[in-house]
């Protein structure tokens, strides 16, 4: 399950006006509660949250990766910060974050980092199969850039933004050919959008699970053909000595995206 930037803690300059006003103990309790629920449901969760550092250092802007065992598997700290963030709000991170789930390699990107193509090149060199891009933004150009990176590097991109920012930029799942495969539908204010799950367990069908009912098919045969073409392209890249990833058509592919309304 992929959440937006700062979904747990609230976003600096938006919900957070002063770090001294943050109840860090309560925030830790909420993270532990989410980890327990992830273990109960057997889900991997990636959630945006500020990460406190020792004084006088400012917090990291981070993505926590929680495993299906309810453990913090790793954490990504935003490396490229805006001028406002770097001068008054956040301490930048130092390294990329790649984690693996059932043979699939995931990389993490936060908000304004979409403007730095070298980060996406770096994840391509690290053999990422999918980039988890979390943002607190409504700039439609972010979505266009994400499609370009997906197509250029032949990997999946999941883009997650909060509901209140989705007038200009919506959450979406982007295929390695750059095409948008799925995005949530807006419902009444104050309600999160559909929680969508794409699966290719049988290599034939992809489904979404809306919050109000059972699964329904959302992808047609043309998209399935595109997926097969993508795997073939990656196999060709491997044979030619360029970056590629293993073909996993016989394995289960599961991906979850939720467009979340922050309530802080």
Briefly note the CATH topology name of the domain at 19-195: Nitrilase/N-carbamoyl-D-aminoacid amidohydrolase
- SSE order in H/E notation? HEEEHEEHEHEEEEEEHE
Major β-sheet strand ordering:
4-5-6-7-8-9
User: Main β-sheet, in a few words?
Assistant: 6 strands, mixed
CATH class of the domain at 19-195: Alpha Beta
Strand content: 15-25%
Classified in CATH, the superfamily of the domain at 19-195 is: Carbon-nitrogen hydrolase
CATH architecture of the domain at 19-195: 4-Layer Sandwich
Helix content: 25-40%
Give the beta-strand count.
13
Strand pairing plus helix content: what structural class? alpha+beta
Report how far the terminal alpha carbons are from each other: 20 Å
Q: Counting H and I runs of at least 4 residues, what is the number of helices?
A: 5
**Average of per-residue pLDDT values:** 76
* Low-confidence sequence ranges: 188-231, 238-264
Any idea what the radius of gyration is?
18 Å
- Basic shape: globular
Features:
single chain; 264 residues; alpha+beta; Nitrilase/N-carbamoyl-D-aminoacid amidohydrolase; six-stranded mixed sheet
Provide structural commentary:
- With 264 residues, the chain is α+β, with helices and mostly antiparallel strands.
- It has a domain at 19-195: Nitrilase/N-carbamoyl-D-aminoacid amidohydrolase, CATH 3.60.110.
- The protein contains five helices and 13 strands.
- The chain has helices at residues 24-41, 83-88, 117-125, 140-153, 221-239; strands at residues 45-51, 60-66, 72-77, 98-101, 104-110, 130-134, 156-160, 172-174, 180-182, 195-199, 207-208, 216-217, 254-258.
- The strands form four sheets. Strands 4-5-6-7-8-9 form a six-stranded mixed sheet, covered by helices on one side. A three-stranded antiparallel sheet has the order 1-2-3, with no helix packed on it.
- Strand 5, helix 3 (117-125) and strand 6 form a beta-alpha-beta unit.
- The longest helix has 19 residues, at 221-239.
- It is globular.
- The two termini are 20 Å apart.
- The model is unreliable at 188-231 and 238-264 (pLDDT under 50).
